[in-house]
Fold this sequence. Notes:
It is built from no helices and eleven strands. It has 120 residues and is mainly β. The strands form two sheets. Strands 2, 4, 5, 6, 9, 10 and 11 form a seven-stranded mixed sheet that branches. β4 and β5 form a beta hairpin.
Amino acid sequence: QVQLVESGGGLVQPGGSLRLSCAASGNFFSINAMGWYRQAPGKQRELVASIISGGSPNYADSVKGRFTISRDNAKNTVYLQMNSLKPEDTAVYYCNIAATSLSRKLYNYWGQGTQVTVSS
């Protein structure tokens, strides 16, 4: 199976920065895309940023100019650099990958979630 392990969440003041990491391990043929979602209490989970293999990154309008998604293909790791954080960014952040299995089927896998709290 495939596992995603997230790290980097925590409590930060408004205007501060955090970097989230998500490392994929297990058996898969290839990773097609990696992304970050977030879910605040009482709200629907939303896509924050994504990056497709061989393509350009995509961002939600609410984080453009502040967040940067990147990946290290050799380490099967995706990062989310979050700058100029706002209280509205407070949520549980989930890593997601779209990966092709050894049997050539496409699946989505989710990380365990990491809490990001922006408060003074």
